[in-house]
Amino acid sequence: MAAKRRAETMEENRGKLIAAARKAFAEKGFAAASMDELTASVGLTRGALYPNFGDKKGLLAAVVAQVDEEIAQRARSRANGQKDDWSKLLAEGVAYIEMALEPEVQRIVLLDGPAFLGDPSHWPSQNACLEATRQAVTALIAQGIVKPVDVEAAARLLNGAAFNAALWVAASETPQATLAKATEAFQHLASGLLVNPR
């Protein structure tokens, strides 16, 4: 019973730390966020950080994973209203790029994430997106909608194009104008995979 309670407390503390870090990283950025202030804001000591995340970068990785998963879920939700699988795949990529306009997504996932955690292709959340894209491309090839290309290559290129377009939008001085150019180019690039381009 004591072990169960300890595990529940640890999970509760983990949730508190992620929520506090998400707020601090979005408002101040990863580098400027103070771990002492962050832990104190949820009634914990800095010592609570280490068993849960190892260090500050581990906490950032947990926050990036949470935000990135929410982005992916929202993109899938927006794509669900489309009429066919190809339109869903395209709409999901465009939705991901559009979310680069959101300050929290910009700061945490697109700016601080790559700067402090390195190559996004190694993030678990990005690997989950890649797997979903692999499955979509496999289904589209089986349906004869997409050319019989290498699934891994197509999935990686589609994901990479969407992520890099989002990075471009996030770093742009004119994000709305950049978004329009990025989404148009993304759609044209992706449509090159179609057996019968639309």
UniProtKB/TrEMBL annotation:
- Tell me which residues form the DNA-binding region: 34-53
Keyword Transport on entry: no
Instruction: State one molecular function term (GO).
Output: DNA-binding transcription factor activity
List residues of the HTH tetR-type domain.
11-71
Task: Print the keywords alphabetically.
Answer: DNA-binding
Stored PANTHER family: HTH-TYPE TRANSCRIPTIONAL REGULATOR RUTR, HTH-TYPE TRANSCRIPTIONAL REGULATOR UIDR
Give the protein's recorded name: TetR family transcriptional regulator
Which organism does this record belong to? Franconibacter pulveris
